[in-house]
Amino acid sequence: DAGVIQSPRHEVTEMGQEVTLRCKPISGHDYLFWYRQTMMRGLELLIYFNNNVPIDDSGMPEDRFSAKMPNASFSTLKIQPSEPRDSAVYFCASSFGSRGETQYFGPGTRLLVL
Amino acid sequence: SQKIEQNSEALNIQEGKTATLTCNYTNYSPAYLQWYRQDPGRGPVFLLLIRENEKEKRKERLKVTFDTTLKQSLFHITASQPADSATYLCALQTSGGYQKVTFGTGTKLQVIP
């Protein structure tokens, strides 16, 4: 398997623009996670899905952020409108099964909002 | 409030020595504790998992201990090598129906040749 795939790897945009980050989880995995990593706050869980259904979105910072998982092989994280404080590395991860299972991370998308 | 603390200062250690990293937590009752490695520009990679009823886990040169009384986990790398230089993250998962994992901020390890 190719692992978790994320695109784009780098994104530079201007404040106010819409940003869409994409993720393809490992085939067969039933959990998908979106994280944000910054120097100040570390790795923060934004939202996670189980079998394409959002389970916990309490980490989503505000209404400007939204995430969807239309099928088992694709998820998007959208920021609209983007702000400079959204600049961070965004990771997607997937896992399979019950508690205690390993999460497999993608390479991340480095977002810079000017 | 719930908190996971890892030493934010980098740990520098001589090649061949044992590196010990600490993860302390408060107001958690974790069922599982995981350690991940993260290299610059890459996503975290899973290393070891230890359950609440386990005291110690080993994998090759890695050893993890878990003390639920002290609310602490120690991560040891024996015979450290420059290739072990990376940031190491601990992650807690509480019991419950779902897979939510909370990460610490990580400790950067530098192994000096």
How would you describe this protein?
The complex is a heterodimer of chains A (about 110) and B (about 110). By secondary structure, chain A is mainly β. Helices cover about 0% and strands about 55% of the residues of chain A. Chain A is built from no helices and 11 strands. Chain A has strands spanning about 5, 10-15, 20-25, 30-40, 40-50, 55, 65-70, 75-80, 90-95, 105, 110-114. Chain A is globular and about 40 Å long. The model of chain A has no long low-confidence stretch (mean pLDDT about 95). With about 110 residues, chain B is mostly beta strands. Helix content of chain B is about 0%, strand content about 60%. In chain B, strands 2, 4, 5, 9, 10 and 11 form a 6-stranded mixed beta sheet that branches. Chain B has a 5-stranded antiparallel beta sheet with strand order 1-3-8-7-6, with no helix packed on it. The termini of chain B are far apart. Chain B has strands at about 5, 10-15, 20-25, 30-40, 45-50, 55-60, 60-65, 70-75, 85-95, 100-105, 105-110. In chain B, strand 9 (about 85-95) and strand 10 (about 100-105) form a beta hairpin. Chain B is globular. The model of chain B has no long low-confidence stretch (mean pLDDT about 90). The interface of A and B includes residues 55, 91, 93, 95 and 105 of A.
Give the topology.
The complex is a heterodimer of chains A (114) and B (113).
Chain A: E1 5-7, E2 10-13, E3 19-24, E4 31-38, E5 42-50, E6 53-56, E7 65-71, E8 74-79, E9 88-95, E10 104-105, E11 109-113
Parallel strand pairs in A: 2-11
Antiparallel strand pairs in A: 1-3, 3-8, 4-5, 4-9, 5-6, 7-8, 9-10, 9-11
Chain B: E1 3-6, E2 11-14, E3 19-26, E4 30-38, E5 45-51, E6 56-59, E7 62-67, E8 72-77, E9 86-94, E10 102-103, E11 107-112
